[in-house]
Amino acid sequence: MPGLTRRLAGHVAGIEFAKLPREAVETVKRGTLDCMGVLFAGRDEPVVQLLSKSIPAGSEARVLFDRGRAGSADAALLNAAAAHALDYDDTGLDGHPSVVLVPAVFAEGERLGAPGKERIAAYVAGYETWAELLGRDADKHHGKGWHPTAVFGTLAAAAAAAKIAGLNPEKTTNALGIAASMAAGLVANFGSMTKPFQVGRAAQSGVLAARLAAAGMTGSADALEHRSGFLAAVSPKGRFDAERDIERWHIVRYGVNIKRYPVCYALHRAIDTALQIEVKPAEVELIELRLGKHQAGMLRHSSPQNAPDAKFSAEFAMAAALLNRRLGFAELKDDFVKSEPVQALMRKVRVTATDEADADEPLFAPFDVVSVKLADGSVQTRQSKRHAKGHARDPLTLEELRAKFDDCTQGKQAALFERLLGLESLGSGQML
Hints:
Blueprint: H1 4-13, H2 22-42, H3 46-54, E1 61-62, E2 69-70, H4 72-84, H5 97-112, H6 116-134, H7 148-164, H8 169-180, H9 194-215, H10 230-234, H11 250-254, H12 268-274, E3 284-292, H13 293-298, H14 307-310, H15 314-324, H16 334-338, H17 340-346, E4 349-354, E5 369-374, E6 379-383, H18 398-408, H19 414-421
Parallel strand pairs: 3-4
Antiparallel strand pairs: 1-2, 3-5, 5-6
């Protein structure tokens, strides 16, 4: 039987729009809509401005939608970094699928004049690749220091770019082999500008790997499963399975989760829960938050002094939710984070982690618990739902998704929203 790299390449090459489940197509469109919206919201972030200065002009694909053009790989880098700069993009597969796949697919799709149906099929090819590789490791990658979006996203972007370019199984095998040597990203960089940069690099590297494979560059045909290959490298304990059969339609099983708050997704259930507790902040003596150990491991900052750090702070999330009864763009400002009411309430937050894991999503505990003790000795305790609102199993309505898109685009891209809703109707060479 062929090895995993060849089998996965053959699976990718064989994906066709006409054979996609309806649920898969709808998931791609929701992920694309959300990604495009947050891309607009993140276009002026400092990391995007820095990267913009380092990317040479080109002609293949649009940059930041209407701010010039660049080579397709560079466009994928910048667009992905912008879409992830606010950490407001969708989640799934222990990472952020759309923020890598949409920029890669649309940059290469624009270069090649690919119609909407082919772009959708390419996204699915990337998603399936990511899910196949992630699910073969028994250990959670965040716990090992790997950022799955930057690591698995690189191979997913390569698969998507290979698919949209129509590469055959042999060249797709080479694209995966090349991308396997380009995949990297660290949890230690969460909260810094490097987090959106390493996500952008995943999109860029995937596009570049596919283009090099198309031009004739080779990679090892067993780059994924070899004892010194990709899976072994990201699984130091060697607890991975390279032999099992390729599964179909992970995208239908897992989908994408749309964020309602521009902070780390590990906090979203807790924020939903804290917003159910109505207290006067001045009367709060203690706030206790219990969540999963892997969730807690992503939340690096206990006393943040700026907005980027606050995105990865359980203390800030609880303080902001109880103080302002919301957590949106207005709260993710340095002045608000540093304000005395926020800082004072953050000092009253205690975080504990549990080893319990959700059966379907072991990165999370089965539920989170928020407990608030008041000065009079009374305690209010709430247990979260299994899934945050916006999760694939508790999805946003179309109108709620539209409201987030309008908020991100300041209500100026209503026509784009409608065009993306009909993405499968986009013809060859047509622009959005």
